[in-house]
Design a protein that fits this description.
The protein is mainly β. It has 3 domains: about 10-290, YVTN repeat-like/Quinoprotein amine dehydrogenase (Methylamine Dehydrogenase, Chain H, 7 Propeller), CATH 2.130.10; about 295-395, Immunoglobulin-like (Sandwich); about 400-485, Immunoglobulin-like.
């Protein structure tokens, strides 16, 4: 699936290597970093990355590594020198919360406003249940580097390691076990998109759909350093050499995007599935706001048979596509009508394979019809795809009445009628003795019409229907037999 998103460089005002990015809204976000500058930086933007303002780091604290914001006011940063700092006013002030002697924190995340975990080296796990007031060290059972923490709930937590396994707990850290990942590959980043689905990435990427019990290898690529999913389908990974990877189908396929830089990228964060940021070495901050189209159309055309239009279209690929609403608009006698719905066709969700679709529409009035597809995604968002040229429905050249269908009927059936001119259309139904059982009459425009014959209140038997068209200069009448079986 090829999606050409454009990444733009933002002026960070620093050459310090940046290691983390986090946004709480479309305009407000933070980055942290310390590479090539152990003192480190904390930067904040309130205008979508156009300007970045430095925030003060508490005395004695250095190497701010990863940031996690609980909301726009409250957030935490862990450092490579074993500190955890906190803000309650959007970063206007950061205060020291915890110091771990000999510790090296690599990741920090929260399950809710009170419960959070920080992990690092050697085999370091600490937990708070009181919004960071106190942190208690837990027994991990390993001395490996713990690079990232993934939280399903306050009690169910995973951590990535260099030991070719994932650490996990289901009891809030009272005990930690190890869960193997395929091919014994190191994992550096982990995230969960819902109560069952998660991704772990490193030298390759893995997916679970059963709360981390089993992990399946998705694809092999170069080393992931950062991983973030904007929704259940759309995820981004960042790598060495400035490469950005994107999936739009839950990790089954990944497309490579050119970020415009060749330096390592360390962290990525998306506000939604179109707007995101990534940061890396030398103070690099990149931003994208491109909106990849949910559906790439291959063609959209039609075949006409009298009043029946067979619409045919195909997609190159689809992203979260719930379906297509078919709409038409009549242009007749110099007047243009409103768009009306003609039907709905279910989409194919997310796929990078071509999909063909068809839908038939029966039209009544002659004229030029424009068609469009209202493509709707699972979130209710939509866009229109228009047919390049209108469809012409010509005026019928003769009066014609079809056999009712179905026949025999029970109890209702329809009759198709072609009217070559405007007139009064009369429908009569007679029983076998010639007694009139049904009668209706009214003005009809020239075109293609259908009338219904309702046999609900009639007995089974043979009936005859007569269709009469009376115009200003001409009249036509046709009688046909029908069978009603109950």
């Amino acid at each position: 699936m090829s999606l050409a998103q454009t990444w733009s460089s933002m002026n960070s005002g620093t050459t310090t290597g940046l290691t983390s990015v986090y946004f709480t809204s479309s305009s407000t976000g933070w980055v942290t970093g310390w590479q090539s500058n152990p003192s480190g930086v904390i930067l904040k933007t309130t205008n979508s990355g156009i300007n970045w303002v430095s925030q003060s780091i508490p005395p004695g604290v250095s190497t701010p590594h990863k940031i996690y914001m609980v909301n726009s006011s409250t957030g935490y940063i862990c450092t490579r020198t074993g500190n955890i700092i906190k803000t309650t006013n959007g970063g206007a002030q950061w205060s020291l919360q915890h110091t771990q002697p000999g510790g090296d924190f690599l990741s920090i995340k929260f399950a809710n406003s009170n419960t959070g975990y920080a992990v690092g080296n050697p085999g370091l796990i600490v937990k708070t249940t009181n919004a960071g007031t106190t942190w208690e060290q837990q027994v991990s059972g390993t001395s490996s580097y713990l690079y990232d923490v993934g939280i399903l709930s306050a009690d169910t937590v995973f951590a990535t390691t260099t030991g070719y396994t994932l650490l996990y707990t289901v009891n809030g850290g009272l005990s930690w076990g190890q869960r193997a990942v395929p091919f014994e590959i190191q994992t550096f980043a982990i995230t969960f998109t819902d109560a069952n689905t998660g991704y772990a990435a490193g030298i390759g990427i893995y997916k679970t759909t059963n709360r981390g019990v089993n992990w399946t290898a998705l694809t092999y690529v170069s080393t992931f350093f950062g991983l973030h999913f904007a929704d259940s389908y759309t995820g981004y990974g960042v790598m060495t050499s400035g490469t950005v990877l994107r999936t739009s189908n839950g990790g089954s396929n990944w497309s490579i995007q050119n970020s415009g830089v060749s330096t390592p990228l360390n962290s990525v964060f998306f506000i939604n599935n179109t707007t995101g940021y990534t940061v890396g070495a030398n103070g690099v901050i990149l931003r994208t706001t491109d909106q990849p189209l949910p559906v790439a159309m291959s063609y959209f055309n039609s075949e006409v048979n009298e009043s029946k239009v067979r619409l045919k279209w195909s997609t190159y690929w689809e992203l979260n596509n719930a379906g297509f609403e078919i709409q038409s608009r009549l242009e007749r006698s110099g007047e243009t009508g409103e768009w009306i719905k003609n039907g709905y066709v279910q989409g194919s969700g997310t796929t990078n394979l071509p999909v063909d679709y068809e839908h038939s529409v029966k039209l009544s009035l002659p004229g030029n019809y424009s068609f469009r597809l209202k493509q709707i995604d699972y979130n209710g968002n939509f866009e229109y795809h228009y047919m390049s040229s209108p469809v012409e429905i010509s005026n019928p050249v003769k009066f014609d009445v079809s056999q009712n269908y179905p026949n025999p009927s029970n109890p209702n059936s329809k009759v198709d009628i072609q009217l070559p001119f405007d007139g009064i259309l009369t429908v009569q139904l007679f029983d076998i003795t010639g007694k009139e059982m049904k009668y209706s009459s009214g003005a009809k425009s020239a075109g293609f019409h259908s009338v219904s014959i309702d046999g609900t209140d009639l007995s089974s038997g043979i009936y005859f229907y007569r269709i009469t068209l009376n115009g200003e200069e001409k009249s036509y009448s046709v009688i046909r037999k029908m069978i009603l079986v109950k």
